[in-house]
Structures are given as C-alpha cells and as structure tokens.
Design brief:
- The strands form 3 sheets. This protein has a 7-stranded mixed β-sheet with strand order 8-7-9-10-11-15-16, with helices on both faces. Strands 1-3-2-4-5-6 form a 6-stranded mixed β-sheet, with helices on both faces.
- 38% of the residues lie in helices and 19% in strands.
- The protein is α/β, with parallel strands linked by helices.
- The N terminus is likely disordered.
- Helix 4 packs parallel to helix 13 and helix 7 packs parallel to helix 8.
- Helix 11 links the parallel strand 10 and strand 11.
- It has 14 helices and 16 strands.
C-alpha cells in the first residue's frame, strides 16, 4: 500500500522533497503488507448553499500526460471566497502533480461554478473522458449531484466538503471535520485527568455536529457533562447558565470560529465566570489571531493539524505562485498526491474501497488521515496551546493510528 503510513503560517525550512515524501515515500506497515478554518471560510458549509457565479464558467483543462485520468471538480468561477479558494486549490493540485516524480495521472479540471448543476455537468464530462476517480466538489450541496453519477459506475469520489451528511458509500471526505477535533481534544483532556465537562456552542449545524461528537467522546472516556448550552445571536442567557455550573467542571469546550469564541469567552466573563479556574478547550477554528490576542483565552487548548506541514507547503506555494494559499489548499494537494501514489503502486485496485479505507491510513501535508467506510475521515491531530504569539504544540500528532 502506499501512502500507507506508519504515520497560518510562516515558512519553514522543510524541503520540497521531504514534504512530498510524507505521502508518497512513507514506509509500508505490516498491516498493509498483509493505506475548521475551512468551516469559517465559507458562508454556509453545512447548508449546501450554491455559490454565486462571478463570471462565465472556466473552460475545462487537462493537466499532465499520465494514463490514469482523474477528475477535479472545483467552483472556479464562483464569486467571493469560494472562487478564491477554488483557484488556490487548483494551484495546489497542479503543484502536487509537479512535485510527484513521474506521475502516471492526468487531471481533468472542471469548473462547477459552485452549483449542483455545474457539479453534475463537470462530473459527467470527466467520466465520459475516462476519469477513474473524482476529486471534489467543494460544497456540500454539490456532492450528491456528483455521487449520483459516480455510484452508477462504481467510481469513487474524494470530496472536500466539511458536511459529514454527504459522505457515504463510495464518497469519501478529505476535509477538516469537527468530529476529529472534538474527539482529539476531549481524549487529551481526559488523559490529563479531566472528568467533568461543560460546553457552550453555537445553535447551528456546526454546533449540532459538535454536540453529538462531544457527548459521545465524553461518554467514551467515562466522563460526565455537567452543563451544555447553545447560543444564537444573544449569548448572554446561555453564558449565564454555563457560568453558574462551571464550579463543577474541570474543562469547558467553546467550539466556534475565532471572533465568536472571543465574544463567547467575554460573555462568560461578564456572567461572572472565572475562566482561569477551568481548562478551556477548542477546535481547529481557534487557529485565529483574535483568539491568540484574547487575554481570557490564554492557556486554552485546541486540536488542529501540526502547523509545520502547512508552513512548509505555504513556503513552496509562495515560491511557485507568488501568493498565499488558502488553508484548504492542502486538501487538493493531498488528494492529488494520494491518487498519484495509488496509481503507481496499487494496479487495478488503486481506487477500490478496500484500498482507500485501509486502516493504516496515509500521511499528508496536515499529518495522518484515513477514510472510514462510511465516507468520513479521521485525522491524527496535534494539541495546541493558545499563547499571545500564536499556537504552541503541547502534544504532537500521532505517528500511527491505533487499532
């Protein structure tokens, strides 16, 4: 198996060769011998809203001359952040192809304009042209349109949506899922002796996902939830309720994007909570300058990919394209590097479910990842501590997945 693993951003000194080796040169495991910021970047990642086209669809493009054809579906002509992210992900995909030594793949790049109709059209074009696997789409609302076409052919999809509900048979999500963040930070906190947990999360689709993962993770560690509240536009009532219960809690999870986390912490303080007496916990969305600048969040812990991988990637991206990559660009890079590696080593089974869901997983720019049979993923995340200068690691990402 390949890529089978044992296991914002300033440039690092890692070389291109070293970074690429993380995914394509990882040693085989014996088991293999016998493979959030994203959440805040788009307006409604869970609701599947269509993006608004900013111009005419970009023309299809083929990159590479390999025999194995791979479809790449992105909202290249969508307006605002979506189009910017799509272009950055396209650049990253092409960068992965350029950095992989003699890849035997050809990327069939299609613009879906951020709509399900565009995704269906681009997917059909790629399949007609011989694509053996589809990478993308980005938006949740577009993934089912692609899946409807690929499932009839038995073709696998590696999509970039953060909405677990669109994962399923043959549709795998290579994205930063909040479930992985919550599981990692609760497991770490429990490992340091925390047993009583409270949480304050937004009353939206993201909060619903966090709630389910949080309660399951605490239960799995034989902990107890002493307070759990959701908030809408007004945080004050929910904050007062949690503040009153904090005396019974060892740890408090605040799961939201940077600006909202700061506002929530301030609301708790205004409600009389002394947050220095409780270990604050967060998700990867805490990787935000507003969080690092907040006095009350200092010392808080959050789960996120080890930042060194992205720093090295961003340094190489800047050198090649003269600009900054979006945080989700690594997803496109890893997807292309993965399919290139599998095409080289796995023969006719290169994109089969058994290959893609190998429990040993793969090593990418953001560390270990593996696909579950239900289409969701698990990531090997680090635990970071909030400090005024940025996040500092307190526990590294794992070198291999447990059984």
């Amino acid at each position: 198996m390949v890529g089978p693993h044992n296991r914002k951003s300033q440039p690092s000194g890692a070389t291109r060769r070293t970074a690429l080796g993380l995914i394509v040169g990882a040693p085989l495991l014996s088991a293999c011998s016998s493979v959030q910021q994203s959440l805040s970047q788009f307006s409604n990642p869970f609701g599947g809203q269509d993006a608004t086209p900013s111009g005419p669809p970009q023309q299809p493009q083929a990159v590479g001359t390999g025999q194995v054809k791979v479809g790449l579906i992105l909202p290249l002509s969508a307006s605002g952040n979506a189009g910017v992210a799509a272009q950055s992900m396209k650049n990253a995909a092409e960068m992965a192809l350029a950095e992989f030594q003699n890849p035997n793949i050809q990327l069939l790049i299609k613009d879906d304009a951020g709509s399900p109709q565009g995704a269906a059209q681009g997917t059909q074009q790629a399949l007609t042209e011989g694509a053996e696997i589809i990478l993308g789409p980005l938006f949740a609302g577009s993934v089912p349109a692609t899946a409807q076409l690929t499932r009839t052919r038995g073709t696998s999809v590696i999509a970039f949506s953060t909405d677990s509900s669109v994962a399923g048979r043959g549709v795998y999500l290579l994205s930063f899922l909040p479930e992985s963040d919550v599981n990692r930070i609760v497991d770490y906190a429990a490992g340091t002796g925390k047993r009583s947990f409270a949480a304050l999360v937004p009353d939206n689709a993201y909060g619903n996902v966090v709630e389910a993962a949080f309660k399951q993770a605490v239960g799995r560690k034989n902990g107890r939830v002493v307070a759990f509240e959701k908030y809408g536009a007004d945080r004050a009532t929910a904050a007062r309720s949690v503040a009153q219960a904090l005396g019974q809690a060892d740890a408090l999870l605040l799961a939201d994007d940077g600006d909202s986390v700061v506002a929530t912490a301030d609301a708790l303080t205004a409600a009389g909570a002394n947050l220095r007496n409780t270990q604050l916990l967060g998700t990867g969305l805490w990787d935000n300058p507003r969080v690092f600048a907040s006095p009350v969040l200092q010392g808080g812990l959050y789960a996120a990919p080890d930042p060194s991988g992205f720093r090295s990637f961003a340094n190489r991206y800047r050198a090649k394209f003269g600009g900054e990559p979006v945080r989700t660009a690594t997803l496109a890079y890893d997807a292309v590097a993965l399919v290139a590696a599998l095409a080289r080593t796995q023969g006719a089974q290169r994109f089969a479910a058994e290959t893609l869901t190998n429990p040993s997983g793969f090593a990418g720019i953001d560390g270990l990842f593996r696909f579950r049979s239900d289409g969701t993923n698990e990531r090997g995340l680090a635990v970071m501590k909030v400090a005024s200068g940025g996040g500092t690691p307190v526990a590294g990402s794992p070198k291999s997945f447990g059984a």
